[in-house]
Amino acid sequence: MTSGIGRRRSAARDEGGAAYLARREEIIRAAGTVFRERGFRGTRITDIAEAVGMDRASIYYYAGNKDELFQTAVGDAVERNCLRAEEILAGPGTPAEKLRTLVTELMVSYAEYYPYLYLYIQEDLAAFAERSQWTRTMARYNKRYENVVVAIVEDGMADGSFRRTGEPWVVAYGVIGMVAWSNRWFDPSTSPVEAAEIGRSYADTIVSGLTTGGHQ
Predict the structure, then answer these.
(1) Domain check: are 26 and 109 in the same one?
(2) pTM for the whole thing?
(3) Which of 58, 113, 124, 154 is paired with 11 by a 20 to 30 Å CA distance?
């Protein structure tokens, strides 16, 4: 059963249009900053309200709880990255070209959705309320993304453009982990180097290490 405030929130979303959605996005961004500073468990709705200059009651006009804010931001990013990866795999280009694009765009997504994707990496998913369905959905998207990277590496090894340095899945997990490690130091608001340039540097390093002569 939907609560009274839930119905009002739904109506406001429908009637408020762009202004409502813009304010909600502002709250999601502010919540991300607080989550980054305090961790998910240590953050209260009151903290988010203070960060965005609202009272606690007004926050509920835009989101049911902190889980909803987190899950909305992370879910959108994870789904988009997965679908884009599958598009890259199915599209034109050599395995090296596909891997370059994939790595660069993954790094860019960390900046676009900062800090939510990093928080997703760092947090224990068991901490989230209403965890079962959301966690299962995220796990499926993660697996699909991993499968794409494995497939690109396998294709490169199969056509001889990538050296067979190990099992494709081991190489693929290393690629994903290399970009994910940027959570330890990258902040798009302070970094002197843009995410796209970092992504291209990572991609160059990975592809150069994998390719055989003349296939880059």
Answers:
(1) no
(2) 0.82
(3) 113
Omega into 188 within 30° of 0, i.e. cis? no
Beta carbons within 10 angstroms of residue 162's beta carbon: 25
Mean pLDDT of the chain: 87
pLDDT average, residue stretch 110-118: 92
How distant, in Å, are the alpha carbons of 78, 126, 147 from that of 200?
Answer: 21, 34, 22
5 band by pLDDT with thresholds 50, 70 and 90: very low
User: In angstroms, rounded to a whole number, what is the distance separating the alpha carbons of residues 163 and 154?
Assistant: 10
Query: Contact, 102 vs 88, CB < 8 A?
Result: yes
Q: Are residues 116 and 198 in the same domain?
A: yes
The answer to whether residues 45 and 75 belong to one domain is no
Residue 216, domain member (yes or no): no
